[in-house]
Amino acid sequence: MGQTEHFPVRYETTAREINLQRLRETAEGYYRNGEFSCSESVVKTIRDGFGLTLPDEIIAMASGFPVGIGRAGCICGAVVGGVMALGMFFGRTQGRDQRNKHAMSMARELHDGFQNKHKILCCRVLTRGLQIGSPEHLQQCISLTGEVVEETTRIIARELDITLV
Fold this sequence. Notes:
By secondary structure, the chain is mainly alpha-helical. It has one domain (about 5-160). It is built from 7 helices and 4 strands; from the N terminus they run βββαααααααβ. A hairpin with a 2-residue loop joins β1 and β2 (about 5-10). α4 (about 75-90) runs antiparallel to α5 (about 100-120). The two termini are about 25 Å apart.
């Protein structure tokens, strides 16, 4: 099983090489085609792209986050999906397990990278002036979803020493 910071990863992946552009396009396609929203697209793409054998319920767990948590306009659902994906690999399932410190560090890295690039994580601000469901809104969120998949994949690949192509 893979190791990171002296903790075994939660789920083993057989992936030794990941095509970053293909994962981005997959996530964007799920959103563009109306199959999944932002957070769901991120979780499904990372799960499938890394070949994890997690049940579809993991995708269902991401269903309440789109449009800033149930259309409340709060944190970007794609970022939440990225944090969930990091947890699939590096999160804890037992109380007091210290692996959560490393998982939180990676979540913060994803958060800070997004915030540095966009200055905000609030969905309502990221989509200000865009009508929900309009082509402009969809394109913005499709792009953000792809971006988060890329960044999340980079973090996971770095931690597991997986080559990105």
